[in-house]
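Q&A log
Question type: sequence-to-structure
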Amino acid sequence: MVNSANQIPVRMLAVIVLYKMKPSESVTLNTLQKAISRLEHGQLAIKIFLFDNTPGGQDIGALPAYMQYKADVKNGGVANAYNCALEIAREEGFDWLITLDQDTSLPDDFLCKLYHAVAIVGLLNTVAAIVPWVSDDGYVISPFTIMKYWIRTKPFPSSFIGIPLKKVYALNSASTVRVSALTAIGGYDLDYYLDYSDIEMYHRLQDNNFSVFIAGNIHVNHESSITDLKNRSNPIRYEGRLRAEEAFYDEYLGRIERIVLLVKMFYRPVYRIWRMGGDLPFFRISLLCLCRRLFSSRKHRMETRKLSAKRRLAV
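Response status: OK
Response body:
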């Protein structure tokens, strides 16, 4: 914990979701600890919560006193992990929740700059989140806005600092969310337990009149499975993302946006899979999703999704 007798520090709980990786091997944990060491006394009070989704669990050895560990051997996804962290944050009086996965490289000055961002927006209770500029292999992947009818995404420039008038969407990892705001919307939706959990959460935040502050002066590197199917994903993971995308469009967006999605699903097997390194199994999954979109009703898709979620939560 970082503390000072001279002032009350901002209290932050940083949650890192692990999967088949020991804490010591996580670039996120290692870089976060370096960032903590750069803090001045009295700026932030930080606690680290490690949530382990490794099936069957693992032996992680001894951990420092300022870290808390919890294993979910059934792998309930990131939404469950972040909701568990939210519960701890509420119970222990933390102001902000930093949501992280295991593959995010934080700059040494991440927390120092985050502290200054909180100083700017801390008293603005309608600001629900602070998000950095995130890239993967030179490509900007967060934050972004979405053009009319969800035709395409448009990233914010790295120099942008402030609260945009447009809706902001960002990755879970390296987002800093106000505990009271996340509590107000009921936390993360467990139906979106992995993919689209961040898009769905940010959508609900802003639909409830909260806003997002973009800290463009904080640059973070993140390894995303979305941009590299060949090396960072697998067909099962890919299918899960497509189903979550479909569910989000059915639940939250209008008829024109759903038509746009259908057009994207025609385009995806022909060009996008090849570009991202996918092979025949990914192609087949895209075709199956396209057929389901064409030949099943929205009501049937939503009912099937809800039933599947209930079965998963009951296991």
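Response note: The chain is about 40% helix and 20% strand.
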